[in-house]
Amino acid sequence: MFKITAIKPGTDDRIVLNYDPHTSRLTDEQGRDLVEGIQTSSKYQAVVTTSVETPAGKVTPRLLKISLGLSCNYECEYCSQRFVPRAGETNKNDIEPFLSGLNEWVTTPPEKVEFWGGEPFVYWKTLKPLAEAIRVKYPQAVLSVITNGSLLTPEINDWLVALEFGVGISHDGPGQHVRGPDPLDEPAVRAAILDLYQRLAPLGRISFNAMLNRENSSRAAINKFFVDLTGDENVNIGEGSFVDAYDQGGVGASLKPDEHMGYRIQAFSELRGGLAKNFDLGHSKIAGFLESLKMQRPSSALGQKCGMDRNDAIAVDLKGQVMTCQNVSSKGVAPNGQSHLIGTVADLASVKLNTSTHWSHRSDCKTCPVLQICAGACMFLEGDLWETTCNNAYSDNIVFFAAAIEFLTGYVPFYIEGDFRQDRKDIFGQVHGVPETPQKRVIPILLAVA
User: Fold this and answer.
1) Which long-range contacts (CB under 8 A, 24 or more apart) does 99-108 make?
2) Neighbours of 384 (CB within 10 A)
3) Is there a domain that residue 14 lies in?
4) Of the candidates 353, 350, 349, 306, which has an alpha carbon nearest to the alpha carbon of residue 107?
5) How would residue 83 be classed by pLDDT, with cut points 50, 70 and 90?
6) Cα–Cα distance between 131 and 406 in angstroms, integer?
7) Domain for residue 117, yes or no?
């Protein structure tokens, strides 16, 4: 149970709330629920708490992720695949055996099929016939691809539109130079990207996927960049969270200890000021947290944020090898020492996700106030990389936590008491660990945008 001290913007009026992330109850000091219309639901089932000792299995996929390989025409600074050992490349000769074997392990049509690289369009000669066959086989499935956009052409755009693809274009807006090359610098590529946007945006099937890092930490600046680029005030921005530290490149892009408070103030100010309104992330995180309170979602029903611990989410290559997720290879080894090759589709019943650590096996997660929003950072990271990623995730998610509580109560949380890390209790760095200290300058930057 956490005790949250919050202030009404522009006043000295304070309240104290109680919150339990394991029962999803938010109450006032008298123990009265602050959410109206609570509807406890029997739909919540306990998830498998994956670990080496308790690995999750896999069944016919609802979400099927097909990895074409990890080759890419870019080399980005904090790419999650940057230092992943490369397995043998698949090619178009693998398509027929892969397709012919689908009925043996995909017994119900998947809801969604994603095609992954590397850069997927490096594999155009494989991707094109494969996706066309998948569209015929599963006509109702949502098809999706994430690309850096650099290889888009009028021909590929026509094909994506015809097959009714959803497309995410990985681009960090004004901070793209931190990540790597900028496809918008090439006039023909820029024209192709904007052409595809104009064709798919009215259908709700395209987004620009931006990641935040310490040199590109303003959602407002990213929001403005893509509005200016497209001329669309409602341009959809996907991803939008702070980077995970998959390797030293990710560590370098992460917040340093003395930068967390400044980032939280900036991110919350932009969120409250409506300057980051095009990020799906903000809407989904706040709405998801509010739903958890209304439905009193138990933490036992909470899986990992990426969803790849679910038994009906499978990442597979064209050789039929099942892997932890689409960002690793069959040659890679997880930080816990287990191979990222967790089985094959030829024996799906024997696939065991033993490379993942569910949040319930991590002490910081079990005692974290933003658990219901964060749902754990990357499920296979360990050690210093996990610690850095967890720090990024906390500073990112406490912003949405505070915004959701202000939405419900009109009061902005600024201090959290409870059995968790001392350095995380003072949310915006104004209280210096003493919540009883009277002061008028709590969260001054936030009050300016009220």
Assistant:
1) 99/130, 99/133, 99/134, 99/137, 101/320, 101/345, 101/346, 102/137, 104/345, 104/346, 105/60, 105/345, 105/346, 105/348, 106/60, 106/61, 106/64, 107/60, 108/60
2) 11
3) no
4) 349
5) low
6) 45
7) yes
The two three-digit tokens of residue 333, written as one number: 């080894």
The amino acid at 298: P
In angstroms, the CA 273 to CA 260 distance is 20
Is the pTM for the entire model greater than 0.70?
yes
Place of tokens 């850095």: 388
C-alpha 410/C-alpha 92 separation (Å) is: 57
Flag whether pLDDT at 440 surpasses 80: no
What mean pLDDT value characterizes the chain? 91
Domain that holds residue 189: 63-255+298-350
Among 396, 437, 435, which residue's Cα sits nearest to residue 413?
A: 435
Domain count, the chain: 1
pLDDT tens-place string over residues 102-132: 999 999 999 999 999 889 999 999 999 999 9
For the segment 236-291, what is each residue's pLDDT rounded down to a tens digit? 999 999 999 988 888 999 999 999 999 999 999 999 889 999 999 999 999 999 99
CATH label of the domain that carries residue 133: 3.20.20.70
**C-alpha–C-alpha distance, residues 401 and 99, integer Å:** 44
- Does residue 88 have a cis peptide bond before it, meaning omega lies within 30 degrees of 0? no
Residue 50 domain-assigned (yes or no): no
Q: Which amino acid is at 144?
A: S
Residue that has been written with the tokens 């995970």 in this structure: 244
Query: What is the C-alpha separation between 380 and 391, in angstroms, rounded?
Result: 16
Question: Directed axis angle between helix 383-409 and helix 280-295, to 10°?
Answer: 70
For 267, the token pair is 């991110």
Q: Tokens 């030829």 label which residue?
A: 346
Assigned domain for 88 exists: yes
